[in-house]
Amino acid sequence: MKIMNAASLLAFVFIAGCTGSAPNTTPPVTRAMTWTLQAGASSAKEANQGLQFYTTSITIDAGDSITWGFPAGEPHTVTFLGNRKSLPPPTDPKVSKPAGGSVYDGSAYTSSGFKLLGGTYTLTFPKPGAYKYYCLLHGGLKGGMVGSITVQTAGAPYPRAQQQYTSAAHAMITSDLADAAASVDEFPYPAGGTHLAAGIAPNLNTGPPSTSTVVRFLDSKSGSDQSVTISVGTKITWTNLSNNFPHTVTLGIVGQPFPKLPPFSPPSGGTTYDGTAITNSGPLFPGQSYSLTFTKAGTYKYHCLFHDDTEHMIGTVTVRQWNDSK
Ligand SMILES: [Cu+2]
Fold first, then answer.
1. Ligand 1 center–CA 81 separation, angstroms
2. Same fold for the domain at 31-178 and the one at 187-320?
3. pLDDT reading at 6 higher than 70
């Protein structure tokens, strides 16, 4: 776009020069920068998620662009509301889809849609001003994923260099991921028992929304083992111990591929499970619990509909007969 404009401008100057006197001074050159930020962060196996824009604020000049990287398996959006008054709720189908063009001047709703696992999104800011942006999945919560951009007039000196933003981002990410990892120690139930966590976050579900979260089912202060063994007739209860994201407990039919249900699907199935019917908790928001009694011996996998594909939020329940020797 810029090259085209420059080319047509040159053509105009050339034509003008043919009919009159060519200008003998050239205008000052302002070089547009492309800045780099990051939306969300995660540990190697996606268990621990950082839920911020890294960094949250930046100052650029009119004409500059920003490229956001989305390295995590958890999807995020970079969304500018334009003339909209409020964020569309996370359940709105519009949330996952891109909107607007490659330029944002404050007038129109402009969004990356869901981006994850190495996706990028670039916007150019032609107009000075202060702009806020949100992650539509994680920005509606108090203290949620919100970023701000100050656009100065073209050519104004930058208060910070890219390297300063990059090191600040690195420190924030390290801190958020460490907080997530440490929150596993807050698991409050007996280890290896029948009360599990469906996700956990610093200060648990009673705390304020945290900037990090753990995307795992847990039965102890360990984030690595997602399998439990019980006897027939045992009831398992899951509680969402995070303060910032819904999860589900969802079981399919034994011998069939896992059902592709939308994450916000309502609850289905009853209070017992024997492997013959799709059984879904529905979205469990922070603090909400779900219980299921397993009535038949077998090995059953269960998934979180929000996090099964990319983040391995998959657990196993092995149900044994009473008379099993082991
Ligand atoms: Cu989940």
1. 27
2. yes
3. no
DSSP state of 185: G
Residues whose CB falls within 8 Å of the CB of residue 41, separated by 6 or more in sequence, listed in order: 49, 50, 52, 54, 71, 72, 173, 176, 177
274 SS3 class: coil
Q: Which residues are near ligand 1, the ion (C-beta closer than 5 Å)?
A: 247, 304, 306-307, 313
- Ligand 1: distance of its center to the CA of 113 in Å? 19
Whether the per-residue pLDDT at 8 is higher than 50: the answer is no
pTM for the model stands at 0.85
Nearest Cα neighbor of 40 from 277, 213, 193, 283 is 213
pLDDT of amino acid 26 = 59
How many A from CA of 313 to the centre of ligand 1? 6
What is the third-level CATH fold of 31-178? Answer: Immunoglobulin-like (2.60.40)
- Domain parsing of the chain, residue ranges: 31-178, 187-320
Residue 240 CA to ligand 1 center (angstroms) comes to 9
Cα-to-centroid distance, 15 and ligand 1 (Å): 62
Residue 29 pLDDT:
60
Q: State the chain's mean pLDDT as an integer.
A: 88
DSSP string, 129-158: EEEEEE-TTTSSSTT-SEEEEEEEPTTPPP
Please state which CATH number belongs to domain 187-320. 2.60.40.420
Question: Ligand 1 center to residue 103 CA distance, Å?
Answer: 33
Cα–Cα distance between 221 and 224 in angstroms, integer?
9
Nearest partner of 113 among 76, 69, 144, judged by Cα? 76
- End-to-end CA distance of the chain: give it in Å, rounded: 69
What's the rounded Cα separation, in Å, for the pair 158 and 63?
13
pLDDT for res 245 = 87
CA distance 111 to 97: 8
Round to whole Å and give the CA distance between 58 and 280: 42
- Per the document, the length of the chain is 326
Matching residue, tokens 């196993």: 316
CA 198 / ligand 1 centre spacing (Å)? 7
